[in-house]
Amino acid sequence: MIQKKELLEYALVYGDYKGIPKQQIRQYMEKRCDIVLRVDIQGAMTLRWILRKSAIFVFLVAESEEAMVKRLIDRKSETKETLLMRVATAREEVRHLNKFNYVVVNKEGELESSVKLVESIIDAEKAKLQQRRVVI
Question: What residues does the Guanylate kinase-like domain cover (predicted)?
Answer without folding.
Answer: 1-123
